[in-house]
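Thread: Modeling a multi-component assembly for a lab meeting

Hi all, long-time lurker, first post. My supervisor asked me to bring a structural picture of a complex we are working on to next week's group meeting, and I have zero experience with this. I have the sequence lines for every component (326 residues in total). Could someone generate the structure of the whole assembly? Inputs are pasted exactly as I received them:
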Amino acid sequence: MTNTKPMPVIAIHGGAGTLSRSHISPEQEAAYHAALDAILRAGQLLLADGGSALDAVSLAVEMLEDCPLFNAGHGAVFTRDETHELDAAVMDGANLRAGAVAGLSRVRHPVRAARAVMERSEHVFLVGAGAENFARECGLELVSPDYFSTEARREQLRLAQGTNTTVLDHDGAAAMVFKAPAAPLDETRKFGTVGAVALDVHGNLAAATSTGGMTNKRPGRVGDAPLIGAGTYADNRTAAVSCTGTGEMFIRVVAAYDVCARMAYGGQSLQEAVHQLVNESLPAISGQGGLIAVDAKGNLSLSFNSEGMYRGHARVGEEPHTAIFR
Ligand code: ASP
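Re: Modeling a multi-component assembly
Sure thing. I ran the full set together rather than chain by chain. Output:
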């Protein structure tokens, strides 16, 4: 038994999806890499200073929520009623404490609301007006709902409504003939969610996920992201996991917990567990997307069964690495 401390690491994702068919300039692609890189560096710095995995994933997801390139917080997609309904979750692998929120439209950083539920209430999951009232009581920053809106997302909604298709209908994705805005992954067929997982110097794991859901979704619909075990899970004994993809399928296979359960009950490695979920269990029910995961030894898996996933990781003491395509 050695006493060596684990080397802290953080990984993030900004959603998975299909390649864009519109022309992407090197500058546009570089903007995504730069955003991921800056966020990884902030998380890396926090971990290098001895900060907790919980603080690192919270910070990274907050920054992703502020970045309009990604579907969470500012830049979130619209529901079919031209509103925003934001979902988020956070989990601490050291003690299995967890917090989640769904259906928010006024809290600037949904992940902070999730963390407040975990740390300042006796509950795990709050939704809608009750969740927002709680966030207000906790002193979190509230914004007007149009703070989350961007012109690019409004255009996506118009396109989705024009073809009378909900972008949730990924099984029929081939029928979609949307004009994609200039982004490396096709914004109309991308599963937009952001997430982070981390291992800190104390050996603790944490995961956080935040999303606007799917363009043109039915109001009231909640995906996997805020469901503990489906889109988000962390347990020091196995792994921290944050998912992105067709939420309904991720819920049905209890995706994030499935990775941890395969490791705990089946003795699988992180890679084996993730591989089976992403390449076997999810495709078996037409589940598309991916996940990021880290185990207590610092092994990482950033895996997806779609054409690309905005992603990156940074180990303390090493240069961050970012990627979009396979
Ligand atoms: N999984 C998310 C949801 O279903 C969407 C996504 O990852 O883009 O809400």
